[in-house]
Amino acid sequence: MSMRTRAGALTALTVAALAAGTILTAPAGAAPRAASPKFLSASELPPHPSSSWTAGPVTEGFPEGLGSCVSTEGVPSYDYRHREFRTDLDTSAVQLTVVADTATLAKALAKHYDDLIRTCADRIEQNDPDVEAEGRDYGTLPVEEGARVRGLHTETSWGATDISLLSVGRDGRTVTVVSWGQMGDFDDAPVAAFKKTTTTAVNKLY
Q1: How do residues 161-198 score in pLDDT, each as one tens digit?
Q2: What distance separates the 2 farthest-apart alpha carbons in the chain?
Q3: For residue 41, what are the β-bridge partners?
Q4: How far apart are CA 18 and CA 39, in angstroms?
Q5: How many helices (H) and strands (E) does the chain have?
Q6: 162 — phi, psi (to 5°)?
């Protein structure tokens, strides 16, 4: 989302995401470390009509850009890696990757993240009376072990309006979350292009 919406809602959203976490228990023995998953490049994001994308470095840790709907609360202490993307205008994106110990844990983690995104709009409205939120389900994608795309629109009482697209996908033990956001509403969301980006993100992991 843009900084305008975050100023009014980010704290409430983060607390709500933490409260929605569920415990996912890791097995006693960890699996051997796999090769690091690959990330999207700037050219693989939905094209911006007037500005090119710039990709930041792949960075260790959980990105703040996902903190409004997705959190690390209630899941094992995995090694999180992410890459952030920006345009010259008010549009941004981020990709997160997590390698779980087993495919079963990765499946549960993907569902956990998707559940957090699915319920995010309700949690926003419950925690901040100045924000109206609506979520939309754009369906699943037939890539590797599957992916799902959702949309989230928020509007504050002072008129700030933002649209986000979020997806969760999985390839074996690896889960990836991709988020795109800018000022606007559902009519401004490049859903078809974002689905292509999500498919590329999952296929590109390995």
Answers
A1: 999 999 999 999 999 999 999 999 999 999 999 999 99
A2: 51
A3: none
A4: 26
A5: 4, 8
A6: -140, 150
